[in-house]
Predict the structure.
Amino acid sequence: MAEELKIEQKFIDEAKMLCRGAEILPDGFMGLAYKLQKAHNENRPLRVKLGLDPTRPDLHLGHSVVMRKLKQFQDLGHQVVLIVGGATAMVGDPSGKSETRPALSKEQVEENAKSYFEQMSNVVDIKRAEVTNNADWLHSMSFVEMLKLATSTTVAKMLTRDDFAKRYEEGRPISVVEFFYPLMQAYDSVAVKADIELGGTDQRFNLLMGRDVQAHYGFEDFQLAMLLPLIEGTDGQVKMSKTYPEHCISFTDSPKDMYGKLMSIPDELMPKYYLLLTDLDFNKDNNPRDEKMRLAYEIVRMYKGEDDAKTAQNDFVNVVQKKCIPEDIEEIKLDEPQNILDLLLKLGFVQSKGEARRLIAGGGVKFEGEKVASTDFLIDKSGVLQGGKRKYAKIIF
Amino acid sequence: MAEELKIEQKFIDEAKMLCRGAEILPDGFMGLAYKLQKAHNENRPLRVKLGLDPTRPDLHLGHSVVMRKLKQFQDLGHQVVLIVGGATAMVGDPSGKSETRPALSKEQVEENAKSYFEQMSNVVDIKRAEVTNNADWLHSMSFVEMLKLATSTTVAKMLTRDDFAKRYEEGRPISVVEFFYPLMQAYDSVAVKADIELGGTDQRFNLLMGRDVQAHYGFEDFQLAMLLPLIEGTDGQVKMSKTYPEHCISFTDSPKDMYGKLMSIPDELMPKYYLLLTDLDFNKDNNPRDEKMRLAYEIVRMYKGEDDAKTAQNDFVNVVQKKCIPEDIEEIKLDEPQNILDLLLKLGFVQSKGEARRLIAGGGVKFEGEKVASTDFLIDKSGVLQGGKRKYAKIIF
């Protein structure tokens, strides 16, 4: 950070606001304040980069953490630059990871990106964002240019990345091509002239690599890295992910589901959700149940609006807290007896028979108020079927 | 090696002959016999690959070891494929090595390659060889193709290469691009469909990598690696190299120099020179001096012809063994006294003043039969100047 630049209080305040819940490398929020001041002096917006993985287009509240930051930058007049990782998506990921990513066609990438942006527009003003695809510059890279890129860092440095270090240590293979992924992501920062790049804390290495590669390509100022914590799913156990749909809150979830899932989080998770998913401050002196309702209400309001938030809240109070069955439940007419697993799946209470089995095993399925104990259970008469805490259907024969 | 192929004795004999002084991986000479038989059955020649480094176009006897093998393959009707490393030469070598290679222009590469081939034609029939430049396929490689190449091996495997292992161990940097050099060399074996690749024993890793990469590209048979020992310079200390011209025998050396240098090798080096530089067998029961003269005569004969070999031998007997001054020595007229260092350099007895100083310090410089003891010595009268064992000039004032 150059010492001679005088930083106005205004930009220090903005930097502090932008840093809420985030880590800035290097130099913390003052590094960001410096960038804000410099851009102001140069009468230009900051270029705020986010790379998108078009192989996973299902967005959830976990993604909103970084997207909310983008929106804050937009509100301050800065330029958001979204980079669809088309180049890498079209190559696929040959790494030794358990989940290997398949190569996608150009059309699939575009379709996924479109869906991604639609969902993102819940938070970010996509129309004002600069949308790019790194296939545009990476696919046309020549042999000599790629070798130049590969000279920008060393093997030893690459092997300091946590996952590489771990795999190397454990004797698990790392394909040479995997060294190219961080290099390509870093080169994107050269191509779009990023001033700051956002990412999860798991992106620390890649985002800092962007600085090295910008230096290698003769930049005078290097991008800052803004790292945002990954949030846990509603069970508070592991990172929120579509892999565990019951603990994942999607933008497409109904207001009722969203509210209900948020009410199911462990109390310890509340401060983090407040910090990263809302602009509200967690109040530790409040009754935890009330504080959780305030959180759930706020998040549903943000994504679904005030009316839906109210309805969801009322419903929750009626159904869960007063333990009564909601009035507007779905009716389904059956002509013949049906196995409980098939029925739960048909009703959309579960995503798979495996989930249905787990739900039954956990005592979460009731028919006419009685727990269903067996996966062989047959529904052969009219009655109310309950799956989990919040899902009901009226079966009619 | 497939078991079902019956290998004729003829090909076993050929393989044994070709393996003289060489190591074949995998499976030793039987691996080669199998290839020879298979090519014969398929009625095609073997494709015998050698990669050339066009940044170092000065050839010497050290290079002849592998070139002699190429000639043997040619004599058996096989196809020699020479690959000029244009792609890599034009990139340069950014590694942490002490001698960094500069990037060469396309024209420089072509010029060096031309000189290389001229010198090679002392041994190999260049007209019958297939001459290629890997820039032809590497420079046109796309981003996706390069990533495909990079998936063919792992970081851990790369770090087993001796020099990489050593540098990684010692904390010296290895640029990521350096991982590409063995991959590119290996890809050349895909491009030219090599059945066998020749190289020095320091090429073991790279040549075996060729097999892995051929497998990655779906080949059914992989190339054999033929490894040839590096020979020491005439002092028997380090690898023969132009860096030490006094211990290096170039194709362009005069018959007299070549003969004299060969006569200066330590006795222990004779068996290796016989094995790798000639078709003759070393006879340990012979008088070492006679055996060394037979070696020197044979090598001068190979590169300069019978007549020059005889003259060189006679000269050597007269000058060195009978300690008399040869008759046909150069005369040089001086107008004013001259410093001994300058004069040695001017006469071409040495390549540098440093070499001149060493020669004087070692007692190798005589004027009129008297050892020159000081580097300040002035030649100010007529007389015979001797530099080293075999160089004379008549100074005339």
